[in-house]
Amino acid sequence: MHRHDQNFDQKYKEHLHRKIAELKKERDAIILAHNYQREEIQEVADIKGDSYALAVAATKAKNKVIAFCGVLFMAEGAAMLNPDKTVLLPVKEAGCPLAEMITVDKLRKKKEEYPEAAVVCYVNSSAAVKAESDICCTSSNAVEIVKAMKEDKIIFVPDKNLGRYVREHVPDKELILWDGYCVTHMRLTMEEVLKAKELYPGAEFLAHPECRKEVLELANYVGSTAGILKYVKGSSAKEFIIGTENGLIYQLTQDNPGKKFYMPTNEFVCANMKLTTLGWLARSLEQMMYVITVPENIAVKARKTLSRMIDVMEAKK
Ligand code: SF4
Predict the structure, then answer these.
(1) Where does the pLDDT of residue 3 fall: very low under 50, low under 70, confident under 90, or very high at 90 and above?
(2) How far is the CA of 155 from the CAs of 105, 132, 173, 183, 286, in angstroms?
């Protein structure tokens, strides 16, 4: 049974690869994939990266259509920055629970409570929440962005783990944290990391700042997916325990053939990221669905919060 099924699976995969390649040409489309996507998606992607790298790539793309293999807030970001292009999200249910833990109404109330505070908003948020914020940040530049703010009081939304990490690195500012978290990164426990360290004593542990505080305390390096990829390339260590979503293993293995990577738990999977399959991607390009748009009144303000972040980072170069 297995032999027959594997054969069938392989043939079906090849069929989908051909179909996607044809549709890409026909539609003048580019495929962007987040590092947490399934391997089969990362294999066909034109550009892979974290949400920030993909947003920048989207603005540079010359194609008419962007098939965004990720979650809704990322496709929204690409749509907002590229009003002249068609942005497709292959699975409309692919949302981000963290981004959904904050609403514009609740943020407005918080701003009323602290009128003197500036709002720093992690890119993992909706366009509407970005529009209501003063500046954006990513997991790799959050510390620098908060440091660069002239205000002493900062409302940091929506990830409390990243917020707490920033607070530790910028002690002279008062950070008011939102009670949001990434359901995937919160799953990793200290016990699981300690067990993995015992199993692989020579391995370095690398963690994403969306992880719990006690997990971050065990890390040799804390950083974004882009940061982890860079760190591993430059490290002389040969083995690593990876404290982020398991999709990153694909790129890590591609970039570092001689090194070994271990997941501290099999449960480190973002269900939303894994919704996109080759079949859904092919259907998306064929039927031009689901087109993601952001109302211009929101996009205008949200673009400002993003460009402020880019300006701060550029000024530091
Ligand atoms: S990994 Fe976390 S932050 Fe990223 S999409 Fe999944 S739930 Fe959202």
Answers:
(1) low
(2) 15, 12, 11, 21, 43
